[in-house]
Amino acid sequence: MANLCRASRKDFRNSVVVARKAQASWEERSAYNKGQILYRIAENLEGRKSELQKVLSSEKGVSENKSMKIIEEGIDSLIYYAGWSDKYQALFGSVNPVSSSHFNFSILEPNGVVAAILEENSGFLEFMQLLSASIVGGNTLIVLAPENLSMTAMTIAEIIHHSDVPAGVVNILTGHSKELVSHMAGHMDVNTMLSWGADNDRRTEIEELAQVNLKRTVFWDQKHSIENGPYLIYDLQEVKTTWHPIEQIGGSTSAY
Fold it and tell me: What is the pTM of this model?
């Protein structure tokens, strides 16, 4: 049906370069604009869902009715995360009480470059949630699709290419995870290593390799459903605390 690339470690290294280059400008985009782009991906998926239905049915060995339901749930998840684009900061950010003459704020900032592996037990819906939670928070993403979702992943890549997503923000690889996991988890310019559906052996391997540059490791499984949406965004954020001095002037307080 198709000739698919078997991504090498060089392909991954090149993806890290373009993801790093795109990350700063993507982070600076407004929450409204990030949400708009996720909506645009959802719209384009809606327009090609009949094509995706056939590809997904072929790859995953499920009925066309079931594959259509899965695709529609994936589209809904994109819209759901788009709605969170300007709200998760309010949920997780805070004004902290302090005893000195300061305002103290906790705000979220993206981890940066996220490298992710979707294991063989992952599917289309997990792909959409991982993509949405990563980029809506200002991260750039490099994701290795499972072998039994490779053609679907390439169709998604085509859709993303025509959905106003800036170059380098989403990078999709197809290949064998056993060949790339060590390069992904050990790369010095990756900020977060994520795996969806990893078994205990894979988790141990990733955690040991990630220690090289103290990158964050994140492991999701079937318990991480769309109902946990904002917390998946939070998993890929750093909490930054800032202090702002205040001055007492008479009976009032002002910042300077």
Answer: 0.90
